[in-house]
Amino acid sequence: MKKLLRKVHSRYYRYGVAFFYFLLWPFLYHFSRKPSRYAVMNKFRQVWGFCSSATAGIFYHYNYEQPIDWSRTYIICSNHTSNLDITAMSLLIKNNYCFIGKEELLKNMVTRIFFKTVDIPVNRDSKMSSFRAFKSAAERLQHGVTMIIFPEGKIPDDYPPQLHEFKNGPFRLAIEHKVPIIPVTSLNTWKVLWDTGLELGSRPGVCDIYVHAPIETAHLTVDDADALRDEVYRLINDKFESYADR
After folding, report:
1. Nearest-angstrom CA–CA distance, 85 and 48
2. How many C-beta neighbours within 10 Å does residue 11 have?
3. CA of 198: how far to CAs of 5, 10, 61, 202, 230, in Å?
4. Which residue among 25, 34, 65, 198 is the one 20 to 30 A from 108 at the CA level?
5. pTM given for the model
């Protein structure tokens, strides 16, 4: 019975996502027509994410290691265990932002509008695609757009989730452009909705998100990229595991 209820809730949540997407579609479409409007488009994305989650009884609680100065540009690096992480990261950011995500999202009816405009698609199996993606990311950072990257590159298949190896790209990007990195630990979104929710369903609940202190990169060189990657991995993994042990 519990699994059936979770499946019903997951379907209800997905219907909510679709309903608010189509309700907001005219605004999303209008503000997607020009790059100068992307910041407003992101505001509507936040409204969409909040409403579709809230109607399913899903909310987000953020715990900050220290206050964040949102007048600055950052690279946000988070673990990835649930589709809810996308909404969680969107609602976290208080300035203009974009995601780097897998190229397959261009084929998804809902995410296509974002990855053809404000967000950056990448095929990680193609060196040329990766080069183009990080060139676009560099241009966005120079224009003050905060970058959201899930450095694992995907939602891992294991359940309960474990943190997988990080890609190097975000850390080289941060160092080359002297942009601070904010590690973020998504603590329990997988307990509310794991992966897409299709397999195990979902439930109402509060997703706890821990926002670590920004890590400055202005004093680093590209030779420090591996060490920076390992530090961010350790911070996220230690917090994730300590929460799981509670």
Report:
1. 14
2. 14
3. 13, 7, 24, 9, 32
4. 34
5. 0.94
Stated as kind and residue range, the H or E segment containing 138 is helix 127-142
Region 160-178 average pLDDT: 94
| Closest alpha carbon to 120 in 107, 102, 145, 108 | 102
Closest of 228, 99, 100 to residue 168, by C-alpha: 228
- Name residues whose C-beta falls within 8 Å of residue 144's C-beta, 6 or more positions apart in sequence: 73, 95, 96
Helix (H) or strand (E) holding 177: none
Q: Which residues pair with 64 in a beta bridge?
A: 211
What contacts 124, CB < 8 A, 6 or more positions away?
102, 130, 153, 167
Q: Is the pLDDT of residue 125 over 80?
A: no
Domains and CATH numbers, the chain: 60-244 (3.40.1130.10)
Q: For residue 161, which phi and psi values (nearest 5 degrees)?
A: -65, 150
- In angstroms, the CA 57 to CA 244 distance is 22
User: Which of 215, 246, 243, 211 has the alpha carbon at shortest distance from 231?
Assistant: 215
Strand duo 205-211 + 181-186: pairing: antiparallel
The Cα-based distances of 31 to 92, 114, 118, 119, 233 in angstroms read 21, 11, 10, 14, 36
Bond into 35 cis (ω within 30): no
Q: Is the pLDDT confidence value at 246 over 70?
A: no
Q: Where are the beta strands (DSSP E) in the chain?
A: 58-64, 75-78, 97-102, 120-122, 146-149, 181-186, 205-211
DSSP state, residue 67: -
